[in-house]
Design brief:
Helix 1 crosses helix 2, helix 4 (88-108) crosses helix 6 (197-214) and helix 6 runs parallel beside helix 10 (350-363). The chain has helices at residues 22-36, 41-55, 64-73, 88-108, 143-154, 197-214, 249-261, 296-311, 325-338, 350-363; strands at residues 77-80, 83-86, 124-131, 167-172, 177-184, 219-225, 229-232, 267-274, 280-283, 286-289, 316-320, 341-344. The two termini are 48 Å apart. The relative contact order is 0.11. It is α/β, with parallel strands linked by helices. The strands form 4 sheets. The protein has a 6-stranded mixed β-sheet with strand order 7-6-5-8-11-12, sandwiched between helices. A two-stranded antiparallel sheet has the order 1-2. A two-stranded antiparallel sheet has the order 3-4. The chain folds into 3 domains: 22-86, no CATH class; 124-172, no CATH class; 177-363, Rossmann fold, CATH 3.40.50.410.
Length: 365
């Protein structure tokens, strides 16, 4: 594969982490490249070799060969049939990096997750304090403020803590959620020189890592849709590729409903990442496709799925990564029928939008 990095900008590293080793620095770059090479570690390392020739990303004391050897020693790669592949350790590391990167972007933007008025016993502690009431979980006690109150009320010589002294951290109720994440893998996701699939993969990995590590009571099912829909495992995301497919939104939504019907969590939702235009449906065993404009037959079936999701009380949140006016109007119509939400997101904001929406919905449970 020919490397095109003419639009990439390279400059000296000015990060604050002066303890970052040569291995860690190159590993960070490798993780980024692996998303672009669909998990092909040999190709990603070839890219790094070319980058090293052009931009000297290694040092005299530590080259690409040293890096590859350390990857093997630390079990980030494994060999089978004479070829290198990512290990499970590398796959987990990719998901953690995706999650860290998205939260880092949120922090740099100076944003926080929106609060709701509903409070109660939950696992999302805030800095808001309240007096103790019977039944409050003492794990959420604000010890510093409580001791200060005890000192003020009783004095150092008679230091004791009474119920009126106690201050508690407010917590937000976190409802359990089952989410079906639909990712459009039609050819339009890489059309016109814009890579839309890599940000989608990155967000899917981060969301999966968030749910599996922080919210084990939640579930995430990942579904790709082109001409057809299929479920994929969290571990499969880095290897995901766009194909020569049309966009069968109906198939994606139908599989999302089928999966969520089997989930026991009371709160269910569908997240859909797409460029917005359905262009394919299935009639019996045959496909009906039309890439030109919005076909009435395809639109009618897609809107019917929006209504079916609403009947089952499953909202669809569409993250549209295209800005064509007529497509935005269609998504608005789809959203109105479903009583869901739509976000018209740039690629670099996709992670922020999805994480805000996921957290806000949990707090409304």
């Amino acid at each position: 594969m020919k490397i095109n990095y003419s639009n990439w900008r390279f400059e000296a590293w000015r990060g604050s982490n002066k303890q970052m080793t040569d291995f860690d620095r190159l590993l960070d770059l490798l993780k980024q490249l692996l998303l672009y090479t669909n998990g092909d570690i040999s190709e990603a390392l070839s890219w790094m070799t070319e980058l090293d020739k052009s931009h000297q990303i290694t040092t005299e004391d530590y080259g690409i060969a040293d890096f590859i050897q350390e990857l093997k020693e630390k079990n980030y790669v494994q060999k089978s049939s004479g070829l290198m592949h990512m290990s499970a350790k590398m796959e987990i590391s990719l998901r953690r990096k995706a999650l860290d990167d998205i939260f880092s972007e949120l922090s740099k933007a100076g944003r926080g997750f929106h609060r709701t008025d509903k409070s109660g016993k939950g696992d999302e502690r805030t800095n808001i304090l309240k007096p103790y009431t019977f039944g409050d979980d003492l794990d959420n006690m604000a010890w510093t403020e409580t001791i200060k109150n005890a000192q003020r009320n009783h004095g150092i010589g008679d230091l004791r803590i009474e119920s009126d002294d106690i201050r508690m951290h407010e917590t937000y109720y976190q409802s359990r959620m089952s989410t079906a994440l639909l990712i459009d893998i039609s050819h339009s996701m890489i059309l016109y020189g814009e890579d839309r699939i890599t940000p989608a993969k990155r967000v899917a990995m981060a969301l999966g890592e968030l749910i599996t590590t922080r919210y084990p009571g939640d579930t995430l099912d990942i579904i790709t849709f082109g001409d057809d829909a299929q479920r994929i495992a969290l571990e499969d995301i880095p290897y995901l590729e766009v194909g020569p497919f049309h966009t069968n939104t109906v198939a994606g939504l139908q599989m999302g409903l089928d999966v969520l019907r089997k989930r026991k969590n009371p709160n269910k939702q569908i997240f859909m990442i797409t460029d917005g235009k359905p262009s394919c449906i299935k009639k019996g065993n045959k496909y009906y496709k039309n890439s030109f404009g919005l076909d009435k037959q395809i639109v009618k079936r897609t809107l019917a799925m929006a209504h079916q999701c609403k009947k089952l009380n499953i909202p669809v949140t569409t993250f549209m990564i295209a800005h064509d006016e007529y497509l935005m109007q269609f998504i608005h119509q789809f959203t109105s029928i479903n009583n869901g939400q739509a976000f018209y997101s740039s690629l670099d904001q996709l992670g922020s939008f999805i994480f805000y929406d996921y957290k806000n919905k949990k707090r409304k449970g």
